[in-house]
Amino acid sequence: MRILSHTNNQPMKVYGIKFAILAALKGEPVIVPKKSLYLEIRTKVLADPDQGLALYRDLKANHPDKYDFSSEIPDLISTGKYLQRRNKLDDAVKVFTVAVGLNGKAADISYGYELIGECYFKKGDRVRAAENYTKALEIDPKNKNAAGILATLKQ
Question: What is the pTM of this model?
Answer without folding.
Answer: 0.81
